Amino acid sequence: AQSVTQLDSQVPVFEEAPVELRCNYSSSVSVYLFWYVQYPNQGLQLLLKYLSGSTLVESINGFEAEFNKSQTSFHLRKPSVHISDTAEYFCAVSSNTGNQFYFGTGTSLTVIP
Amino acid sequence: DTAVSQTPKYLVTQMGNDKSIKCEQNLGHDTMYWYKQDSKKFLKIMFSYNNKELIINETVPNRFSPKSPDKAHLNLHINSLELGDSAVYFCASSSRASGFVGEQYFGPGTRLTVT
Fold it and tell me: Is B40 exposed, middle or buried, given 0-12, 13-18 or 19+ CB atoms closer than 10 A?
């Protein structure tokens, strides 16, 4: 079985400052990793994903995440946040052998003007 | 062109009533899901169907019954509604063609309020 831990439930950060949202997972098999974003009163949208290959993956709006197998982490980073990045961010993991998909408990990112 | 749609968007009802939420996807996906998101934003998977077959059935009260008439639809029926059922319910879909549960596409959610 897999599980996901998001260590920070709330992260306030000033506009144009860098941010890191932490995600750790546990699994006994190979996994696929995802970050989803949920803007207020909307459904979840895929932000980026790691399936294989390069351990650094990027999104179109400046976020990036690095898969670190030794530390079982998939932290999300952005060098300079905007007000529009205010949202709930969910880390998720799925197994490449099963049909389970696990979400973390979410991190609420608030960008302060 | 809405990829995953849910109806209704808001649902307010009294305890003890029976209600249904409908979900449709036009992405050609073969797998659909129902999630419950509580007031603390915690997401819990409830059910998953692959090609109309139930593949995930988490521990939820049997008052909740999913129905998949075809691959593009997954409806959720709830009997004898309770206050604790108040939440936002999300439908999602994905393709298992590549052999794993990959990228999921979510609907806009249905906010259920039980009074």
Answer: exposed
Question: pLDDT above 90 covers what percent of chain B?
Answer: 64
Tokens of A41: 């009163």
Chain A residues whose CB is inside 8 A of the B103 CB are 34, 46, 49
Closest CA–CA distance from residue B63 to any residue of chain A (Å): 23
Structure tokens at B8: 């209704």
Could you say which residues from 51 to 70 on chain A have a Cβ atom under 8 Å away from some Cβ of chain B?
51
Q: Which of B81, B79, B78, B75 is nearest to B13 (CA)?
A: B81
CB contact under 8 A, A101 and B90: no
Residue B99 has pLDDT above 80, yes or no: no
